[in-house]
Specification:
By secondary structure, the chain is an alpha+beta fold. Helices cover 58% and strands 12% of the residues. The chain has a 5-stranded antiparallel β-sheet. The protein is globular, with a radius of gyration of 26 Å. It starts with a helix and ends in a 7-residue tail after the last helix. About 7% of the residues have low confidence.
């Protein structure tokens, strides 16, 4: 996680911070684990700074989840049955080690740095003005980790990762009491993980093409290493008809595709922009491709779930399994795409300088998108179950040829 965060921040230009790069890396790792990083500013006696940031760099989160899940499952791959006490012990040791590491990283995630208030002569003039009249020389902003909430959300994060790892791994044994839940849960859970990872892989291919063709290599690499799943899973939700809302104001933004930034900077009557298929397509008609891509990939995931399920499972049961699994997957990943960022410099506490502040907001319509995912999963699961009935599936016994039935398993010598 630290390596991924460091590479992403380096591509975004954060390596130029004077002495604070390791601290920023630690803060990104904390945020990737669901931790809370508070921002605070100081601009002198008569001026004030304020800043806040709520976001998860999901590339860092995904890398950490995949590595943690692999390391957790690997020692159990040769076991035929997992004892309950053994599984609980492995859970406990993993959780303790993770929380200890997170506590150490949280202690490092603290730093103060100066806010840039312009460039060249404009910066000098503003600095002189604030220094002489408002006692606001060198406005700064810093970040600190709130350890209590960070450890709490970190605990939820590691428990979620371990549970999902057990759900998607067909080869990992379960305690005897949980074996009966393996057939209806694991194939659909694996298919949803495969769907989410496929979207990330497609996003990575698009990022490479954009970096090679448009020359924004550093910016594109920063998006890929910090927020690729944020964008990819938003594309999945939008592709099935879901929506987000938000806004982008001021001179700064977050690493995101240009089309998304353009939509967020075109507010509607309510002051917020709606991010959906129609709004994206109004800026770039190629956004309509999100719909057929979602249809193909969701159906493919449903087919994979059906093929990995026992043959006795009926198509309507596949529809129910996939529908519930897809809705739950959206309920998990859609809230993780939330972004709230705000920065400003106020004078005498009565306003902010527009050129020195801004806001970025991206908030999902979770229940609407999850409801659509349920409908898509039901339809795709039914079709996938019907298609899978034409191929050999787990639990089926191949019929023996008639000649073998008559002669037995050993044909007579000639």
């Amino acid at each position: 996680m630290a390596v991924t965060a460091a590479l992403g921040l380096w591509a975004a230009g954060a390596a130029d911070l004077p002495g604070g790069f390791p601290n920023v890396v630690a803060a990104v790792v904390v945020m990737a684990a669901g931790g809370q990083v508070d921002l605070a500013g100081d601009a002198g006696g008569l001026a004030g700074t304020n800043a806040e940031l709520t976001a998860m760099p999901l590339t860092v989160t995904l890398v950490g989840a995949l590595v943690t899940g692999f390391c957790f499952l690997r020692p159990m791959r040769h076991h035929a049955v997992a004892r309950t006490d053994e599984l609980v012990a492995r859970f406990a040791w993993t959780v303790v080690l993770w929380l200890a590491a997170l506590a150490g990283i949280s202690a490092l995630a603290r730093y103060d740095f100066r806010i840039s208030i312009g460039g060249g002569q404009e910066q000098d003039a503003l600095s002189d003005l604030f220094g002489e009249l408002l006692d606001a020389v060198n406005p700064t902003v810093g970040f600190r980790t709130d350890v209590g909430p960070t450890l709490f959300y970190g605990l939820l994060w590691i428990l979620g990762v371990l549970v999902i790892a057990l759900l998607v791994s067909r080869g990992t044994p379960l305690p005897p009491r949980l074996v009966r839940y393996q057939e209806p849960v694991r194939p659909a859970a694996f298919a949803m993980l495969l769907l989410l990872l496929t979207y990330v892989l497609i996003g990575l291919v698009v990022a490479v093409v954009v970096a090679a063709g448009k020359g924004h290599a550093a910016e594109t690499l920063a998006v890929a290493l910090l927020g690729l799943p944020n964008v990819s899973w938003l594309a999945l939700g939008v592709g099935i008809g879901g929506s987000w809302e938000g806004t982008a104001e001021g001179p700064f933004g977050l690493p995101m595709p240009q089309i998304l930034d353009s939509v967020l900077r075109s507010p509607g009557t309510s002051g917020l922009s709606t991010v959906d298929l129609s709004s994206l397509a109004s800026h770039d008609a190629r956004a309509w491709w999100l719909l057929p891509v979602a249809a193909v990939l969701v159906l493919a995931a449903a087919f994979v779930a059906a093929v990995r399920s026992p043959a006795r499972i009926r198509p309507w049961q596949h529809a129910l399994h996939v529908g519930i699994a897809f809705a739950l997957a959206i309920l998990v990943v859609a809230p993780l795409t939330l972004v709230e960022a705000r920065a400003g410099l106020s004078i005498l506490g009565i306003g902010e300088l527009e050129s020195l502040g801004g806001e970025v907001l991206l908030r999902p319509h979770v229940w609407k998108t999850a409801g659509l995912a349920l409908l898509w999963g039901l339809v795709a699961g039914l079709i996938g179950g019907l298609l899978a009935s034409r191929v050999h599936r787990h639990g089926e016994v191949e019929p023996r040829p008639a000649e073998e039935d008559e002669a037995g398993p050993f044909p007579p010598r000639r």
